[in-house]
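Researcher: Let's try something more involved. This one mixes different molecule types, so please make sure each is placed in the same coordinate frame as the others.
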Amino acid sequence: MRTVFWEDNQLKMIDQRILPGRFEVLSYKDHRSVAQAITDMVVRGAPAIGAAAGFGLALAGFESASSSTEGLLADLQTASATLKASRPTAVNLAWAVDRIMGKVSSLSGGSGATEVEADVIRNFVLEEAQRIADEDVEINKRMAEHGAKLIDDGDTLIHHCNTGALATVDWGTALGVIRTAHEQGKKIHVLVDETRPRLQGARLTAWELEQYGISYEIISDNTAGYFLKAGKVQKCFVGSDRTAANGDVANKIGTYMLALAAHDNGVPFYPVVPTSTIDLSLAHGDLIPIEERNPQEVLGLEFMGERVAPQNAKARNIAFDVTPNRLVTGIVTENGVVYPPFEVNLKKAVLGE
Amino acid sequence: MRTVFWEDNQLKMIDQRILPGRFEVLSYKDHRSVAQAITDMVVRGAPAIGAAAGFGLALAGFESASSSTEGLLADLQTASATLKASRPTAVNLAWAVDRIMGKVSSLSGGSGATEVEADVIRNFVLEEAQRIADEDVEINKRMAEHGAKLIDDGDTLIHHCNTGALATVDWGTALGVIRTAHEQGKKIHVLVDETRPRLQGARLTAWELEQYGISYEIISDNTAGYFLKAGKVQKCFVGSDRTAANGDVANKIGTYMLALAAHDNGVPFYPVVPTSTIDLSLAHGDLIPIEERNPQEVLGLEFMGERVAPQNAKARNIAFDVTPNRLVTGIVTENGVVYPPFEVNLKKAVLGE
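Model: All components are placed in one shared frame. Result:
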């Protein structure tokens, strides 16, 4: 089963908030509830929310009562803005929506043109959303092939957050690389950063690795430095929510500190990044918008049945950080592994030059 | 009220496992249950467990049925070993026990000598344990005076784990510095690392800061890098469980990654370390024994009432790491702030040369 898929004229998504305790698939019939689901992190992971937004736009088309192409396009534009505003950091959201709207615009001969019937556009939006989803799986497999070559038999790897099938439509980015190396018969062991505050590592990555039969141990995020310094780790693999033109990598909070510890100990650090996640319009990572979320995600923690923080405590909940390109060994894309100078080589990988 | 104190012929300690939800003081009448309480982290923090071990040894004296000095000394030796084995990393445990036993040995004229009556020794052990506790408070106040000079009005500070009154007999080490700066009228704000896995920051440091009226926000440990990189932090203060002769600092897991992020952004990083915590017998930090604790401390986490990790998940729970001296700006001791070269200057500070 895919994480995000279209069935019975609905968008269906695995509810990632309740795993690993419970497995449930939720159904969505309108684009506003899809946007809310993205905000609430029913679905998370840059490629997965890109695909979800695509299907959300398809729902917006079917929701629109307009019989005119012009009216439908206006409704789709409004829905695009709603979907793109659901989370700020991952560029895949805007990328998927803009890709569909760009093609719709070409199809209809530009804004306001009426050469194409509204229903043709409605169906086209769904088809393009489906193409984005299908391509994501294929791209992940290609990234995994490139990335798996970096992994040696016997390696211990550190992985941050969740970048597996759950973070994508299927297979995964960084975790997809690890999964492919495992399927190639390489004996690997994964130290899973639990990934505070939302614990995607302890919840989702551990759950996936359990299913794939890959050896793993969960560690608190701040334990990664210990194992790196002790010489117990051969490589680090992470995902990315947006990578700037110079190779600065925005990813789940904590990635920067992990990259520092890897660099301090000469351990290679590889973000695994579909080109849809690379934003060539941003010269460097400080331009990437960083989401701050509800402090309750930090404060709501319980241990042995008791709330951890004092009742009146305040918290800050920054969802992402930016790892500067100087700490990045190579960036795995579906077009191969990109090495420095990233300013030059990332553009080539994205544009196929 | 002190964290660790002697009353009614018993050792009394605030139960730090249940704060901030509940406040309870537990009583101990025998040294074995004191050793167990140290292992179980009823009491934690290097200076606090040193003081607890001292009083534990006093209990062992009163427990001993021996009327002969020889027999009492043998019982105290056995109890010393039990107490020293209760946790491996903090050197204060061994330091306090060895200090008392060394003085007892001088008093009794060496092993096996019987010039002094057993009851005189029993009382001496208690008096010396009380002196260690009293000195700890006085030493903390002196460290706080030295350290507070490093803090400027308006500073935002990052603090890791708990190093306050709860980690000591009273007042605190790194948090004592922050508290003194606050009492001097400096406006400061503290970003409190929650400090996984046992969350001493979110539980204990937040609780203490709340009581002192010091402005703070809890952050997940991996968020420190974000704030440091954003230029929002002026200094970092941490404690230490054992510092080697060269200034390598063993402290709560995560300290190394925090120090890396501070260093990468030119933010001063200060361990606050009573000289009782400096182990001149160890040339460097790789010689410091590092405790690994029960994986359930990582896996037992709950969020919104549900267990986070899969039921069969494995975890590693390393309690401390070592921050290399190259990442340390200065070490605050009761004898002043020590700067590099630590190999030379720490010895001077400890031996008073």
